[in-house]
Write a structure and sequence with these properties.
Radius of gyration: 20 Å
Number of helices: 10
Largest sheet: 7 strands, mixed
Order of helices and strands: EEEHEEEEHEEEHHEHEHEEHEHEHEHE
Shape: globular
Strand content: 25-35%
Number of strands: 18
Distance between the termini: 11 Å
Structural class: alpha/beta
Oligomer: single chain
Helix content: 10-25%
Bound molecules: zinc ion
Length: 342
């Protein structure tokens, strides 16, 4: 099969072609696994973190990609959940132990043996991949493969972030950053919490306009004071400055949910602006989001079909993966980037 593989950690500013198109043997499904012929794979910020070493994969070479949609073509000897021809999706969760206290209460995202698709095992920047059947999800008929791909990471993790805010209908929600995840979260929030107002903080004018189009009541820059206090904020930026400002705008007892696998160090010293009475006192909380649980993907796909959420996508062919990644790095974003594989 054809695959785009990462051979070594590098700096994208110096190496603009970190992935190489190669021929690999077709994978074969083991006991409880299925073989998927990949139709589309979303391109995620986490791939940049992997390539540049902020979340270096444990072994190389590796096929990246964890927003995978395709058809089941073969079942492993003990696999029974799907039939050949089913359209399924695979997200960041590839496997977990299944019996630790976290797995048993549905927090498989926190399992010590959590293994991630396209990080610990080969992912979807390829024509085929295998996956444990428990970590594959039927794609609702409402979506094409290309439309469904970005839902599997940006969407499912956005759903988890929104869940972790503990927001109640009518309370104000802030979003700092307005990329692939936030533009899905706002649609989700307006559906689940119709009486809540959404306030968006984004550096680029284009992103602020997009936010208002999608129903934000207010959009400003990172430091702009919103007209009302916020009971919850979801941060999806790679930076620290938006965290400090978001804490300031939080209401008493409010919660900031940080949806980032890693923060970049560029503006870390901004944290010295942190002022305990202004930013933390009055029982303000900070919570990070780690990985994604199976239930997040399952529940989000159902909800997305019901709303329906249709992500704006920009298509690339598999050999163009490097260009898609560079455009993501350079923030040429509107909607989500998806590799189309045939
Ligand atoms: Zn992702
Ligand atoms: Zn476990």
């Amino acid at each position: 099969m054809k695959a785009m593989v990462l051979r070594e950690i590098c700096n994208l500013a110096e190496n603009r072609n970190p992935l190489a198109l190669v021929d690999l043997p077709d994978p074969a499904p083991a006991d409880w696994e299925i073989l998927v012929r990949v139709s589309a794979c979303g391109v995620c910020h986490t791939e940049l973190d992997e390539i540049e070493g902020r979340t270096a994969p444990p072994r190389l070479p590796l096929v990246l990609g964890h927003q995978v949609v395709g058809r089941v073509v073969e079942l492993g000897p003990r696999s029974e959940r799907f039939e050949p021809g089913d359209m399924v999706g695979v997200g960041w969760i590839y496997s977990s132990c299944g019996h630790c206290p976290f797995c048993l209460k549905g927090e498989d995202n926190l399992c010590e043996e959590f293994r991630a698709t396209g990080q610990d095992v080969n992912g979807g920047y390829a024509q085929y991949m295998t996956v444990p059947e428990d970590s594959a999800f039927k794609i609702p008929a409402a979506f094409s493969a290309v439309e469904a791909a970005p839902l599997l990471c940006a969407g499912a993790i956005g759903y988890r972030s929104l869940r972790l805010t503990g927001l109640v209908d009518g309370q104000n929600l802030g979003l700092t950053g307005f990329g692939a995840s936030a533009h899905l979260v706002i649609q989700l929030a307006r559906h689940k919490f119709p009486r809540s107002k959404v306030f968006v903080f984004a550096r680029s004018e284009k992103e602020r306009e997009f936010a208002l189009e999608l129903g934000a009541v207010w959009a400003g820059e990172t430091e702009d004071q919103p007209p009302e206090k916020l009971q919850a904020v979801i941060d999806t930026t790679p930076a620290w400055k938006p965290i400090v400002w978001a804490l300031k705008f939080l209401d008493r007892g409010g919660r900031l949910v940080v949806n980032a696998i890693r923060k970049e160090d560029t503006d870390k010293d901004y944290l010295l602006h942190l002022d305990y009475p202004a930013h933390l006192w009055m029982e303000k909380e900070i919570k990070s989001v780690a990985n994604v649980a199976r239930r997040d993907i399952r529940e989000f796909l159902e909800l997305a079909a019901e709303i329906p959420i249709k992500p704006g996508v920009q298509e690339f062919r598999l050999p163009e993966a490097n260009r898609a990644l560079l455009e993501l790095k350079e923030r040429k974003i509107r909607g989500a980037k998806v590799l189309v594989i045939d």
